[in-house]
Structure formats: structure tokens, C-alpha cells
Recover the amino acids of this structure.
């Protein structure tokens, strides 16, 4: 634990992961400045956090308006900050027609945040990247922090490129222009687990779609997964432990095929029409011609990414929530929202 409370600037504070990061940091005694694109969402953030914290912790939360694509406010927001935790980055369920619509704000926003931190003398950066910046379909059977996505590999999405290029830009900036910045990168897998409110992100919408019974079968596709509570804990530990600087850390608790997720959900909600049969790849390709959400996964049919979180276990002391529990916790939130 740090010798004193930190002042932390958390970007994208209303995000699924970021709300949990704010919760962890406030519960640990730190002061948190949450950046929002619009201050109208401050009430949403406070409503999500308040039930889980004592009132005095909420007094240590402030909010500020920042935009990944605009310079206004960044330098002022960094004043007096000990650690920047940069989580803000777009994550759509349907890939955009123009890849640059994702890549530009991800890369420019990351560099904008790091440059402002350096100008204000902020010594510590924790950046949220993704295993999408690591995993290469057809690469090593189990991949880790030494691996990097090949942006030219078949089926690479705009989202994966955005995470790769934003993280690369951060490491290059620290190496070439800001050697004094202590940068740690967290690379989460598909983030499941319990949202703090009904404003959950794209990853939990995969569980929502499975529970909806919309599809008669599920695609043969899978991902490494992680519980949002563990992702937030890793951000906190990185912020508090300088020995993690200069390193990437995979956040993952195992990998699941979508059919395995569906069976977990079917066991928990037997009354729901949850498809557990795996669809032929050809059928999914045909569906992708009319369904943009399906189209985005077609290039990855038949692939189950596997990553190692050994570094986080050994160096951060992490013990991860099991994948099935992360799936069930996400499902409970979906069911509670009436979905």
C-alpha cells in the first residue's frame, strides 16, 4: 500500500471497467478525478458508486469534462495528480465502416493524455489496453505479454488495430519523448462480471444476446475472459506499486468458447431459450451478410484465443475469479435489468 493517499485522474470514468476502477481506488482511500465527455453523466457515476462506499469516500470523487479529440481542459485536469489511469477508448459491438473512426480517437486520445501528464509533471501512468493488442490467430498456442498483434493478419478488426496502435504509441512516446514517465499497461481479455449499473459495455452485451434467445445456435468462436473486478484490482495495484512500471500485464482467468458460455447460462437460467448448439461456420457467414454484429466475428470463426496471466499472478499477487463465475455475474446483471 502507498504511504499516502494518491490523487488519481481516471479517464472515461463512466465506462464499465472504469466505474470498477473508481470504486477500488476510492475504497483504498485515494482521491479520484473522473473525466467525462459530458458532466451530465456525473449523477450516473455517483449513483453507481454510492451504494458500495461509505459517504466520506464519495467526498473524494470529483468530475471534469475531457474529450479524447480536443485539447481543452487536459492540462488543468492534470494539476496535482499523482497517477493517471487512462481507460477511455471506444469499444463498439459493430465495427465501423471507416477504421479510422476508432483508431484516431484511441491513438490521439492516448497521446493527448500522456502529453498533458508529462507537461503537468504527473509521474505515473496506468494505461488500459487489451489482449486484442496481443493475440494473433494462428500464433503460439498460449500467448503472453511478449506477443503483439500483427495488424496485417487476416480478419484483424478496427478495434484490435485501435488497441494495438494506441498501446504502441504510448510505449513509443515514453521511450522517445518522456523517459521519466513510469508507464504500466493492463491488457484485459473479454471483460465480464457484474456491472455497477445498467450502463454496461459491449462485452456484457454478448451475454445479453445469448440470454435473449435471439439466435438458434451460437458461432464457433471464443475468447480469453476476465472478471471486471479483477481488472479493476490490477489497475489499483499497478497505481500503487512502482515496480510494475515498464511492463504489460495480461488480465485473464481462462478461455471459453461461446457454446461453453451458453451452457453456463442455460444451467443458471433453464427457463430461458438459450441456444447451446454450435452453428456451422457456413451458416454464420450467411448470417453475417445481413447482421453487422455477426459479420464482425466471421473472420474469427473456429478460433479460441489463449493467453497467460502468469506475470500478474507472480508479480501482482493476483488470484483470478473463475471464468464461469464471471459469466454468471454478468448474467445476473442482465437478468436484473429485465433483459
Amino acid at each position: 500500500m502507498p504511504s499516502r493517499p494518491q490523487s488519481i485522474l481516471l479517464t472515461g470514468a463512466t465506462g464499465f471497467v472504469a466505474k470498477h476502477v473508481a470504486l477500488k481506488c476510492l475504497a483504498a482511500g485515494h482521491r479520484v478525478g473522473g473525466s467525462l465527455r459530458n458532466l451530465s453523466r456525473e449523477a450516473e457515476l455517483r449513483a453507481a458508486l454510492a451504494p458500495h462506499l461509505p459517504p466520506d469516500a464519495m467526498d473524494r470523487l470529483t468530475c471534469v469534462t475531457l474529450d479524447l479529440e480536443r485539447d481543452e481542459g487536459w492540462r488543468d485536469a492534470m494539476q496535482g495528480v499523482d497517477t493517471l489511469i487512462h481507460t477511455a477508448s471506444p469499444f463498439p459491438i459493430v465495427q465501423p465502416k471507416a477504421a479510422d473512426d476508432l483508431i484516431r480517437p484511441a491513438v490521439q486520445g492516448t497521446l493527448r493524455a500522456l502529453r498533458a501528464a508529462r507537461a503537468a509533471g504527473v509521474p505515473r501512468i496506468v494505461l488500459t489496453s487489451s489482449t486484442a493488442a496481443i493475440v494473433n490467430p494462428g500464433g503460439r498456442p498460449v500467448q503472453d505479454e511478449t506477443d503483439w498483434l500483427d495488424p496485417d493478419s487476416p480478419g484483424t478488426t478496427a478495434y484490435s488495430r485501435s488497441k494495438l496502435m494506441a498501446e504502441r504509441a504510448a510505449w513509443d512516446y515514453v521511450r522517445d519523448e518522456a523517459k521519466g514517465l513510469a508507464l504500466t499497461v493492463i491488457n484485459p481479455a473479454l471483460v465480464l462480471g457484474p456491472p455497477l449499473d445498467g450502463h454496461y459495455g459491449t462485452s456484457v452485451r454478448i451475454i445479453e444476446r445469448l440470454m435473449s434467445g435471439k439466435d438458434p445456435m451460437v458461432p464457433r468462436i471464443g475468447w480469453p475472459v476476465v472478471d471486471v473486478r479483477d481488472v479493476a484490482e490490477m489497475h489499483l495495484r499497478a497505481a500503487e506499486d512502482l515496480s510494475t512500471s515498464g511492463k504489460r500485464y495480461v488480465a485473464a482467468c481462462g478461455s471459453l468458447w461461446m457454446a461453453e458460455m451458453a451452457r453456463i447460462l442455460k444451467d443458471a437460467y433453464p427457463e430461458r431459450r438459450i441456444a447451446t448448439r454450435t452453428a456451422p461456420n457456413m451458416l454464420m457467414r450467411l448470417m453475417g451478410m445481413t447482421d453487422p454484429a455477426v459479420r464482425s466475428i466471421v473472420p474469427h470463426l473456429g478460433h479460441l484465443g489463449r493467453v497467460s496471466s502468469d506475470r500478474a499472478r507472480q508479480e501482482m499477487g493476483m488470484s483470478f475469479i473463475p471464468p464461469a463465475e464471471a459469466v454468471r455475474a454478468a448474467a445476473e446483471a442482465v437478468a436484473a435489468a429485465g433483459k
Q: What stands out?
A: Strands lie at 7-11, 31-36, 61-65, 83-86, 124-128, 182-188, 190-192, 222-227, 247-251, 254-257. Residues 208 and 334 are 6 Å apart (CA to CA). The two ends are 40 Å apart (CA to CA). The chain has one domain: 7-336.
